[in-house]
Amino acid sequence: MTNQDNVLFVDTIQHVREAIAEHAAAHSRLFVLCDENTLDHCFPLLANDSEELQNAEILVIEAGEGSKNWEIAHHLFAQLLEFEADKQALIINLGGGVVTDLGGWIAANYKRGIDWINIPTTVMAMIDASIGGKCGIDLMHHKNMVGVIAFPVQTIVCPEFLDTLDPIEILSGQAEMLKHALLRSRNDFDNVCNAIANDATPDMEAIIASASVKLEIVKQDAFETNERKTLNLGHTVGHALESYFISIDKGIPHGIAVAAGIAIETPISSAYHMLSADDSQWITEQCIGLFDLDSYQWPSFDILVPYLMNDKKNSGGKINLALLSDFGDCLASFPVELEHLTEAYETFLHRIKNEA
Ligand SMILES: NC(=O)c1ccc[n+]([C@@H]2O[C@H](COP(=O)([O-])OP(=O)(O)OC[C@H]3O[C@@H](n4cnc5c(N)ncnc54)[C@H](O)[C@@H]3O)[C@@H](O)[C@H]2O)c1
Asked: Which of 68, 95, 118, 324 can bridge 130 by disulfide, Cβ–Cβ 3.0-4.6 Å?
């Protein structure tokens, strides 16, 4: 197992097949983890003309965040055992962030770790989830509570898979692109906003640019001691919202929850005199407008409190946020009082009501 990212960007599925053939030659057996949608839309593209994949065992999970749980993980471990997968087996995670998070964790733990590769099929997974080694499952609706940081032998990114992706899932991935852009520059932020406003599916150039932001940060701080915490921008409230939607069995695309998280957390930066009020207003307006945040039924703040109090970044009873101090400049961990979050959330709800 490696301890950093090895990402290959390719422009045709044929190149993905060639990379798989090389990995297959170095492993005893192939297992492909798909969800029901990637089994229908992505696996046939890959398996066509690939002897290695036609002989692979296919493991299938239901699509959606609900599969990132212990019961499904247990079932997958049991399937590997029943198939007598040995230490030289290779798991190919073919899917979005749910498949790469879950499949990475299964591979990192089965028989104390076997090799895996990620083949991301959503924008979210191409620019974010399949990079950086974080993998795991949710626990009692709390996001990503059980997991590890461990790296696949390779991540192979091919934007051709995006042709069949639903527009709301493209938009969801663009929320993380927007976050990466905020960590880079005002110019990058405006470019991503324009691409979203024009309904443009991210191309290879945009995907590489966004993935590079994460790759650079992870390279400096793989195990999140400091710099990597900036990637949590918008995620404290975003994860609490997502957890709430999982708990009511509705779900919300991860990126939409993150966009709401950015819209709610950003004004806290200006309340603490870090980010100008104008910049804060602009970022918040863009998130609300571009991601149609007024079309969701957001919960009352008290429902979010248990999730916020269990956030992985908390310390000494304090909730720590990654907060922007400027475009391209972010404080990795800033302790805030619950009252500040309450106020920011109420302001967001009020604003949404006025825009609806
Ligand atoms: N590990 C990390 O660093 C990291 C970073 C960001 C997000 N995540 C996690 O990623 C998950 C969200 O990932 P996601 O947004 O990719 O969601 P997802 O994996 O649920 O995929 C979204 C939907 O798109 C479908 N789909 C995937 N590829 C398709 C394709 N090519 N054509 C048609 N349909 C396709 C899936 O079946 C699913 O219904 C969350 O669990 C989040 O916590 C992890």
From this structure: 118
What angle, 0 to 180 degrees and rounded to 10, lies between the N-to-C axes of helices 186-197 and 167-184?
Answer: 170
Nearest CA to ligand 1 atom 13: 97
- Rounded CA-CA distance 284/249 in Å is 28
Reported as a single tens digit per residue, the pLDDT across 160-188 is 999 999 999 999 999 999 999 999 999 99
DSSP state string for 112-127: G--EEEEEE-SHHIII
Does the Cβ of 169 fall within 6 Å of ligand 1? yes
- Residue 62 carries which side chain, given as an amino acid letter? E
Is pTM beyond 0.85 here?
yes
Strands 319-326 and 329-336 come out as: antiparallel
Burial 199-237 (b: 16+ CB within 10 A, else e): eebbeeebbbbbbebbbebbeeebebeebbbbbbbbbbb
68 lines ligand 1 (CB under 6 A): yes
What beta strand segments (E) does the chain contain? Answer: 7-9, 30-35, 57-61, 90-95, 115-120, 134-139, 142-149, 154-157, 319-326, 329-336
Alpha carbon of 159 to ligand 1 centroid (Å): 14
Among positive and negative, which fits the CA dihedral 259, 314, 242, 348? negative
| pLDDT tens digits, 108-153 | 999 999 999 999 999 999 999 999 999 999 999 999 999 999 999 9
Left, alpha or beta for 316 (phi > 0: left; psi -120 to 50: alpha)? left
User: Of 57, 64, 55, 51, which is closest to residue 101 (Cα–Cα)?
Assistant: 64
Q: How far is the CA of 296 from the centre of ligand 1 (A)?
A: 20
